[in-house]
Specification:
The relative contact order is 0.05. This protein has helices spanning 119-126, 128-134, 170-179, 182-185, 224-233, 278-286, 331-340, and strands at residues 19-26, 32-39, 43-50, 56-58, 61-62, 65-69, 73-78, 88-92, 100-104, 110-117, 142-143, 148-152, 155-160, 164-168, 193-194, 200-205, 209-214, 218-223, 248-249, 256-260, 263-268, 272-277, 302-303, 309-313, 316-321, 325-329, 355-357, 360-365, 368-373, 379-383. It has 7 helices and 30 strands.
Length: 384
């Protein structure tokens, strides 16, 4: 260039760039002088942050922060997903929704912020009722691509690809955590819902499990075949009411049980799930349930034609009437009584449990008794 001033643009130069210039001047007498200059561009920091860690490209470099020359125009690109593989780009903090944008470096450092949201973030941002119920976040989101959770002031939100985002709170949340959380029975498939009629709450979970809370009953789990049976009866509106114990394995023989306000349900692989109510349920539990000679029930508690109740079991039956109470009947005595017509026979209802006598086993009925002879294996009926 010629003349007393010299300008050169430094666009396209970044980082630690220097420009070496040599200037020469002469006077009217032909005397000359030269001088060398090291010129550096005016540079500014361009920095990108995000609500979830993610990859960014500034110009040609994958980075979140770089020095660029003032006046440069560069392209900034945000990754579609965060490093967690789940959070997705929503927008830049200034409202721009395209992941790719161009910026011109100004006279000061520039900071950009990208908004990434997980499914839990999305529901919190878009669902006013969810925000009201959950309140402020009380911890960072945790988990992986199979299960995520975040604790809020008002409960815990869970996510899975199949179930979406649902929350638990209060006594149900405490029971869920105590049972093992997602490792126990998966993630919730519903938010906490009110029972009908109003008076309780419940959540369903992915592995055929539920937790119900009722006033006076507390929060308890129900699952598997027992849950299926209870649900078919009408859940908490059924004759059994709310659960009063967690679903649990039976101690004496392989199976499971749940206790309810008005009865129990027992399950085994060989018998399925059956409910017991009233005096028969109480007596069965008093006899040590499946540990007794009766083992598991094979029918529900049913009404007799004469105003009583009965239930069949793997190892016998139990019959109840208001005047005799609930009595187990087993073995050969049961077989003989059944052939005679059960409670409709001339013997009527049993009024004692089987008990040992000198020749074998005896059981008393309303109008007689049956005796099993251990020597002959025969059962003989006697009138009172």
């Amino acid at each position: 260039g010629d003349g007393p001033t010299f300008d050169i643009a430094m666009q396209g130069h970044d980082g630690d760039t220097r420009l070496w210039l040599t200037a020469a001047a002469s006077d009217s007498h032909g005397a000359m002088t030269t001088s060398e200059f090291a010129v550096q561009p005016r540079q500014r920091w361009v920095t990108v942050s995000s609500t979830w860690p993610a990859a960014f490209t500034i110009g040609d470099t994958q980075t979140t922060s770089t020095l660029l020359t003032e006046g440069m125009t560069v392209t900034v690109v945000a990754a579609e997903k965060g490093f967690d593989g789940l959070s997705r780009f929503v927008s830049w903090s200034d409202g721009v929704t395209s992941r790719t944008r161009q910026i011109t470096v100004g006279p000061s450092d520039l900071s950009l912020s990208a908004v990434y949201r997980t499914p839990i973030d999305d529901r919190y941002a878009s669902d006013a009722a969810f925000r009201t119920k959950m309140g402020d976040p009380a911890g960072a989101e945790q988990g992986d691509l199979a299960v995520r959770s975040r604790t809020f002031a008002g409960g815990v939100a869970y996510w899975s690809p199949a179930a979406g985002v649902h929350w638990v709170s209060g006594s149900i949340a405490k029971a869920y955590a105590a049972l093992g959380g997602p490792a126990w029975c998966g993630v919730p498939t519903t938010d906490e819902l009110r029972t009908n009629p109003v008076g309780g709450y419940y959540n369903h979970f992915t592995r055929t499990c539920s937790i119900f809370w009722g006033s006076g009953a507390g929060a308890h789990s129900v699952q598997g075949a027992i849950r299926t049976l209870w649900g078919s009866l009408g859940w908490e509106r059924s004759l059994l009411g709310y659960p009063t114990s967690n679903f649990a394995a039976t101690p004496a023989r392989p199976g499971a049980q749940n206790r309810f306000q008005q009865g129990v349900i027992y399950y085994s692989a060989g018998t399925g799930a059956h409910y017991l109510t009233g005096a028969i349920a109480s007596r069965y539990l008093a006899l040590r349930a499946e540990a007794s000679a009766l083992r598991f029930p094979t029918t529900h508690t049913r009404a007799t034609a004469t105003g009583g109740r009965y239930q069949h079991f793997q190892g016998g039956s139990m019959f109840w009437s208001s005047s005799t109470g609930a009595r187990p009947v087993t073995g050969a005595i049961l077989s003989t009584w059944a052939k005679l017509g059960y409670e409709r026979s001339w013997l009527g209802y049993p009024k004692s449990d089987p008990y040992t006598v000198s020749v074998g086993i005896r059981q008393n009925f309303q109008r007689g008794y049956l005796v099993w002879n251990r020597s002959t294996g025969a059962v003989k009926a006697y009138s009172s």
